[in-house]
Amino acid sequence: MFYLLLAIFGCMTGVTAVLFGFGGGFVVVPLLYRMLMFNHDAADPVSQSAMHIAVATSTCVMIVNAMVATGKHRRAGNLIRHYLWPLGGFIGLGAIFGAVAAMSLEGDVIRYAFIAYLGVTIVDCLVRRGFLTSTEGISPRRLGGAEATGGGVIIGTIATFLGVGGSVMTVPLLRRCGLSMSQATSMANPLSLPVALAGTLTYMAMTGFTQFDLGPWFIGYVDLLAFALLTLGSMLGIHLATPWIGRIPDRVHARVYIGLLVLVMLGLWVG
After folding, report:
1. pLDDT digits (tens, 9 = 90+) for 211-245
2. How many C-beta neighbours within 10 Å does residue 154 have?
């Protein structure tokens, strides 16, 4: 049952990665954390490191999801280079800060701050013009220097700390620039790559400072068995979702995205 659930939820992450830019960490982290705690007693090193394992494994799965989904969207012509750089570089810098902080700090303060951020974002998307309205005929503006620099570092730090992609922050940001939902969610995938790469490498490197021996199925805090099952499931999900790229009406796409933000916020609150 453990392995079947991982594969099923992996499939869900593949679907959300392609259509909404979500890397799946909001689902993977709490699921894997609870499964590790259930399958290991309290004295086991795996149980004691369960949250770090869940976050590290989530960021590793995110690498594969983001790379494959980025390739799909590049072929569909949805990527715009100047929105990816330098924002992506500053997201990567913030991702290193977030991973180091996650190794040494309790996550409750940032978790509740992020819940508050999601609440404000949802209300803003619903009330202020620009997110739910169609962008057809509107000329998109470029990101400002402060948006790319400060916004990128903040996005990378928070996303990696929580083990999630930055799409809940990058999509509203790009939507406010006048991009369609297809374009904004497409760009969320390559912009999640710096988070995934920097976070995974940092989690692997930082394990040298711990006293735990997690076993042969681990590289650092990354659970290789869970990674394999989640990735196989996500590949199926990506395959199933690919025909829908660019076919969802913009307004429907935006409303479903807000619905997913609500689910993410509730999931973090309950978690």
Report:
1. 566 677 778 788 888 899 999 998 898 889 888 87
2. 18
Tokens 């976050």 found at: 55
Q: How many residues does the chain have?
A: 271
Task: For 121-177, write each residue's pLDDT tens digit.
Answer: 788 778 777 677 765 656 777 887 777 888 889 888 887 776 666 777 888 888 888
The CA–CA distances, whole Å, from 90 to 2, 83, 93, 155 equal: 37, 12, 5, 9
Q: Give the pair of three-digit tokens for residue 184.
A: 């904004």
| 3-class secondary-structure state, position 8 | helix
Q: Which two tokens stand for residue 169?
A: 């922050």
Cα 4 to Cα 233: distance, rounded to the nearest angstrom: 9
Tokens found for residue 188: 């969320």
Domain ranges for the chain: 2-270
Q: Which pLDDT tens digit goes with each residue over 162-177? A: 666 677 788 888 888 8
Task: Tell me how far apart the alpha carbons of residues 81 and 84 are, in angstroms, rounded to a whole number.
Answer: 5
Query: Do 196 and 23 touch, CB atoms closer than 8 A?
Result: yes
Per-residue pLDDT tens over the stretch 72-99 = 878 877 788 888 888 888 888 888 888 7
For every residue of 248-267, DSSP letters joined together read S-HHHHHHHHHHHHHHHHHH
Q: What is the 3-state secondary structure (H, E, C) of 188-223?
A: HHHHHHHHHHHHHHHHHHHHHHCCCCCCCCEECCEE
